[in-house]
Design brief:
9 strands, 2 domains, alpha+beta, 31% helix, four-stranded mixed sheet, elongated
Length: 181
């Protein structure tokens, strides 16, 4: 199972668990209980729930942010190529669209008008990298193209009536970077 499918499955499991707790509370609502007993039990259990919640949040944060997907924005990045991307209503201005397999590309992404979402889809239609294209600001995105094929660039943020036509393509050749060709 890939990362996206795993996260999706975990999310669905959590939604199911919360729904079950909700249904349990609804089913129990309106029934009389021993107020003193409920108070004592809740006080005993609460620190453990709180501790478990802190551990859960720490583990999930670590699991979803390592490796951290955003490169250092103010440092020089070790990329094979730098590609400039400018989002427009409603097209992408791209300085280079053909890369070699295994090459690490630094995308410098900005916008000429409104906010756009810059997202690269692999040939199997899964997102492999994304960042915001913002007017007056350049976001750096680093991605290594390990698999050859046709990658699609789509806008992820609604930016006007023709948002859906903001498509472009990257071609990643089967020749590896460093072959000298
Ligand atoms: Cu858009």
């Amino acid at each position: 199972m890939n990362v996206q499918a795993t996260i999706w499955t975990v999310t669905l499991a959590c939604i199911a668990a919360i729904s079950l707790i909700f249904l349990y509370v609804v089913a129990k609502a309106g029934k009389e209980g021993d107020a003193a007993l409920i108070g004592r039990t809740a006080n005993r259990v609460r620190p453990w729930w709180f501790g478990a919640l802190v551990v859960f949040i720490a583990v999930m944060t670590w699991a979803t942010l390592v490796p951290f997907p955003i490169p250092a924005q103010n440092a020089a990045l070790k990329a094979d190529q730098v590609v400039d991307i400018v989002g427009h209503q409603w097209y992408w201005d791209i300085s280079k669209t053909k890369f070699k397999k295994g090459s690490t590309i630094e995308f410098r992404v900005t916008s000429a008008d409104v906010n756009h979402g810059f997202a690269i889809y692999a040939p199997n239609n899964l997102i492999v990298a994304q960042t915001q294209a913002m007017p007056g600001y350049t976001n750096k995105l680093l991605h290594t193209f390990d698999e050859p094929g046709t990658y699609r660039l789509l806008c992820l943020e609604f930016c006007g009536v023709a948002h859906h036509v903001m498509e472009a393509e990257f071609e990643v050749g089967s020749t590896a970077a460093g072959d000298g060709s």
